[in-house]
Amino acid sequence: MNCASLSERPLVVKVKYQHTLARDIALSGVGLHTGCTTTVTISPAPANAGFSFVLADGSRIAATPEAVRSTVRCTTLGSSTAEVNTVEHLLAALMGMDVDNAVIHIDGEEVPVMDGSALPFAQAIARAGLREQHVPRRILELNAPYWHRDGDKLLVCVPSQTFKINFFVAFPEPVGNQFLETPPLTPEYFLREIAPNRTFGFRSEVEALYRQGLALGGSLDNAVVIDRHEYMGPLRFPDEIVRHKVLDLIGDFALLGMHPSFEVIALKSGHALHVAAARELRAPLRAAAGAR
Q1: Which value, to the nearest 10 degrees, does the dihedral of the CA atoms of residues 66, 71, 62, 92 take?
Q2: What pLDDT tens digit does each residue of the chain (292 aa) get?
Q3: Which of 56, 110, 195, 237 is 20 to 30 Å from the Cα of 62, by its Cα?
Q4: Side by side, which strands form the sheet with 51-54?
């Protein structure tokens, strides 16, 4: 049996191209913390544009870790003149559904919470469809492990050919300890297993937030509320809490501006740790760009 040498064989090189939306998408709803009704219109953007928010006054905020102004209860982006709150579910939907570039027009200061998950955004993206942009996708690969610790919270990223997540949470009952190990993330898996999972909070915390003027748009229709030893309503998945934490991580890692190609191990992690990791993972690339 004769075999051709490698140099004589035809090679098929698969290039992963960037994608944007095929058309505009508009969704309206109340903000989780402000309680105000807002509309977001998600539009196609050129290759290498990444994600950005355009506010009613015309100011533009790039969705990057450097633009994060707060990670308390949600991820807030800001510029010198404006802020936009609770961006993580929408950004998770864009990244999870394989979108690389989009511009998000918003007529208020907070992305609508919808049903508390990323599902309405992901379904709208699926209905609109994607347009391939013949520019290679920007992929962030690691050549060595990275980790970031904050007390008992830990986030580790290790080299991998695909993006997958292992997440562990520990809360009082009835949540308890939950662990989710995802396969390599695909739009199909994200839409089916991750996007439907809702934001959550303990009733005592929710009442405290009300007194602080927060969570004004929260309700049992858009959040999982936990009261002492029981859930105040049915769950979509038995482990919906850890699945929502995975959703949040995907949304915060969308701030990288690149598609991750590494494995994440997260222990009790949250927005602050996710954003700190995204900022540090981007730092060498930003330094190299500044040196040119």
Answers
A1: 120
A2: 333 333 443 444 456 999 999 999 999 999 887 888 999 999 999 999 999 999 999 999 999 999 999 998 899 999 988 999 999 999 999 999 999 999 999 999 999 999 999 999 999 999 999 999 999 999 999 999 999 999 999 999 999 999 999 999 999 999 999 999 999 999 999 999 999 999 998 887 776 766 776 666 777 788 899 998 899 999 999 999 999 999 999 999 999 999 999 999 999 999 999 999 999 999 876 555 554 4
A3: 195
A4: 25-30, 37-44, 102-106, 51-54, 60-62
| Strand-strand pairing, 51-54 and 102-106 | parallel
Between strands 83-84 and 102-106, the pairing is unpaired
Dig out the tokens for 210 from the structure.
Answer: 């009300």
Q: What angle do CA 123, 129, 131 make, to 5 degrees?
A: 145
- pTM score: 0.91
Residue for token pair 């998600």: 42
The distance from CA 278 to its chain's CA centroid, rounded to whole angstroms, is 12
What does DSSP assign to residue 193? I
Whether residue 95 contacts residue 251, with contact meaning beta carbons closer than 8 Å, is answered with: yes
Phi, psi of 225, deg, nearest 5:
-105, 130
Please, what CATH class does the domain formed by 15-291 belong to? alpha beta
Q: If DSSP codes are grouped into helix, strand and coil, which group holds residue 228? A: coil
- Reduce the DSSP state of residue 162 to 3 states and report it: coil
Where in the sequence numbering do the catalytic residues fall?
A: 271
Ramachandran assignment for 22, one of left (phi > 0), alpha (psi -120 to 50 degrees), beta (any other) = alpha
Phi-psi region of 206 (alpha: psi -120 to 50; beta: other; left: phi over 0): alpha
Q: Which residues contact 164 (CB under 8 A, 6 or more apart)?
A: 181, 182, 183, 184, 185, 263, 264
CB 194 within 8 Å of CB 163 = no
